[in-house]
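User: Predict structure, ligand NAP.
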Amino acid sequence: MSELAPTVTLSNGAAMPRLGLGTSPMNDADAERAVGEALELGYRLIDTAENYRNEVGVGRALKNIPREEVFVTSKFNKRWHSVEGARTAFEASAEKLGVSYLDLLLIHWPNPDQDRYVEAWRGLIALREAGLVRAIGTSNFKPSHLQRLIDETGVAPEVNQIQLSPLWTKQESRDFHAEHGIVTEAWSPIGKGGDLLNHPSVVEAARAHDRTPAQIVLRWEVQLNVVPIPKSSDRTRLEQNLSVFDFELTDDELAKLSALDGSGSTPADSDRAGH
Ligand SMILES: NC(=O)c1ccc[n+]([C@@H]2O[C@H](COP(=O)([O-])OP(=O)(O)OC[C@H]3O[C@@H](n4cnc5c(N)ncnc54)[C@H](OP(=O)(O)O)[C@@H]3O)[C@@H](O)[C@H]2O)c1
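Assistant: Predicted complex:
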């Protein structure tokens, strides 16, 4: 087993590993195998969602580890954007995963056209008060959406999971999160394994540190205090992706990676997209 990732303490006190495993797209069988391998290798944060339809497979793998040793995240869809709906969504995820509580439950997308994410948020606050989830958060929320949650409930999310990599550095979101004690989690943290990993700035740093391009990008996120959740179904890549806590990028390398901001394909716009 590799070293465990260090943790970050969320605003309500839960300790979340600073790197985790993404499980989309994986079906139940893939998820059971990949999550099982990841746990063997030392991953202690597993990211799933109602929408991935793999919570049963993830849950099978979780049976191999004491519950309190792993940080389990799930997310729910827009049809559950109400106080009661959040509770129903929690119960469905917990049952599929075979757990009595979740470490983190997220509103998957704000769906502002539906205009019910504040109600979903009230539902999450109630779940946390009931001790059914240790931490609560959002995904794909822009600063304007987050501000509304804070204005209307007085409670900020502990985590906001957004599409973030050197291709889209999301400075405005990161600044807002830092101001409100929200931890930034990154989806597609290695740009879905695409061209980003061949960019000269990434390849040059990889050579300098004798690391893989993905390790360089994940380390950039760690040094920005962002929690990446790279997906891999391959044991070697799983092992490499977790092993980013024993080297350091220079300020110049960090700046060169950050300079790629805006160079990827258009990211998802959560004012329009979402489920
Ligand atoms: N909140 C949201 O709305 C949202 C949206 C999308 C994703 N997510 C979450 O974020 C997670 C990660 O995002 P993502 O899957 O879109 O993108 P990603 O993690 O940036 O990239 C995953 C891709 O990169 C490959 N890969 C993994 N490690 C690699 C390495 N070391 N070198 C080269 N290629 C590598 C993987 O293939 P192999 O499996 O073959 O290694 C896979 O094709 C998802 O699994 C999901 O949990 C959340």
